[in-house]
């Protein structure tokens, strides 16, 4: 969808201020709410999806700083395009502007929240589908939902082909592992680490990054302030940590859930080195992060990550093989 089409769908003049776009979007979404009229649910859903796509196009346009200019023939065109729509400098945007992993096992949906006039979430709608990598402009819970649906679709196809369903516990376990593997195909960990983490101050190596982290402490052994910790083992996508005496203290966690899907795969793929040190415990930790029932079980950590030389770009190549092996195990399950 082009920007002029998006303005037309929302019923706004080209070049409208983004605050006006947002107000009009909310009014229109309120009109297509299932309780708004006598139209069928299918009609309302189609109209809502159209409105969401238009809003998404104009929102990305506003965030990117692109603008529209008046043409001598009286029309408007996006900078970099002629009034006839021919490309001059910029590539025309697709339904979603993100890098693509052509080797991904399956396409996924790009989802977008629908809101009413009060800003309350009504649900989510698909605005695109493809092998798009996750970028920080995409809401992360919706990204996980899209990957969950992708995994469910794959398992549903297998169940249909063999005309039986496995034990619910087996499917749940396989589905969770499948979602993790699929998510890795849509996350470029090295690129996102550079975006989400801080460059380590005072380090001469430009590929050393600092992240706040947490130790989910078992409570079996005491943990001191400014104590050095070390990787102990990787199990079920958790990095367990030990002290200098070899006592295992718990596993690595993050106040920002996105980092779990960025950092842990780097360790699993042996693409990073790590230095860990306990930090001073603060009351109410983790402030601003996930609220835990027992905050005392979590210790703040300083985490430094160094990307391994020669392994700093690209996605892992063997994920499709891992997915095939997992699905083979699922097909053979009773």
Describe this structure in words.
This protein has 334 residues and is of the alpha+beta class. Helix content is 36%, strand content 22%. The protein is built from eight helices and eleven strands. It has a six-stranded antiparallel β-barrel with strand order 6-9-8-7-10-11. It has a two-stranded antiparallel ribbon with strand order 1-2. It is globular. The chain starts with a helix and ends with a helix.
Attribute tags:
single chain, 334 residues, alpha+beta, 6-stranded antiparallel beta barrel, two-stranded antiparallel sheet, 11 strands
* SSE series: HHHEEEEHHHEEEEEHEEH
Strand content: 15-25%
The total beta strand count reads 11
Gyration radius (Cα, Å) is 24 Å
Major β-sheet strand ordering: 6-9-8-7-10-11
Unreliable stretches (pLDDT < 50, length at least 5) are 66-93, 283-295
Please count the helical segments: 8
Largest sheet: 6 strands, antiparallel, barrel
Helix and strand layout, with pairings?
Layout: H1 3-10, H2 18-31, H3 41-64, E1 68-70, E2 76-78, E3 108-115, E4 121-130, H4 140-162, H5 168-185, H6 189-196, E5 198-199, E6 208-217, E7 228-235, E8 238-242, E9 248-253, H7 257-268, E10 272-278, E11 298-307, H8 319-331
Antiparallel strand pairs: 1-2, 3-4, 5-6, 6-9, 6-11, 7-8, 7-10, 8-9, 10-11
């Amino acid at each position: 969808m082009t920007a002029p089409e998006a303005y037309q769908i929302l019923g706004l003049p080209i070049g409208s201020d983004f605050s006006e776009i947002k107000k009009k979007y909310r009014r229109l979404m309120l009109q297509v709410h299932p309780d708004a009229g006598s139209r069928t649910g299918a009609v309302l859903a189609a109209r809502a999806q159209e409105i969401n796509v238009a809003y998404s196009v104009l929102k990305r346009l506003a965030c990117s700083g692109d603008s529209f200019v008046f043409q001598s023939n009286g029309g408007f065109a996006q900078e970099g395009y002629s009034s006839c729509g021919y490309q001059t400098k910029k590539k025309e945007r697709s339904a979603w502007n993100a890098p693509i992993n052509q080797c991904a096992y399956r396409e996924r949906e790009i989802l977008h929240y629908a809101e009413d006039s009060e800003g309350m979430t009504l649900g989510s709608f698909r605005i695109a589908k493809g092998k798009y990598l996750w970028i920080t402009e995409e809401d992360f819970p919706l990204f996980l939902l899209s990957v969950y649906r992708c995994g469910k679709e794959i398992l549903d196809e297998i169940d249909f082909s063999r005309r039986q369903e496995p034990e619910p516990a087996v499917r749940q376990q396989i589905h969770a592992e499948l979602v993790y593997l699929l998510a890795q195909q849509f996350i470029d960990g090295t690129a996102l680490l550079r975006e989400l983490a801080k460059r380590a101050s005072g380090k001469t190596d430009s590929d050393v990054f600092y992240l706040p982290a947490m130790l989910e402490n078992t409570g079996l052994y005491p943990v001191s302030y400014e104590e050095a910790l070390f990787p102990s083992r990787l199990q079920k996508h958790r990095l367990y940590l030990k002290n200098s005496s070899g006592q295992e203290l718990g596993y690595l966690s993050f106040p920002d859930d996105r980092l779990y899907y960025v950092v842990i795969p780097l360790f699993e793929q042996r693409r990073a080195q790590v230095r860990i040190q306990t930090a001073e415990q603060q009351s109410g930790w983790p402030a601003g992060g996930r609220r835990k029932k027992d905050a005392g079980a979590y210790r703040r950590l300083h985490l430094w990550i160094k990307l391994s030389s020669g392994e700093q770009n690209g996605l892992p190549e063997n994920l499709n093989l891992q997915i095939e092996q997992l699905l083979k195990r699922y097909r053979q399950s009773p």
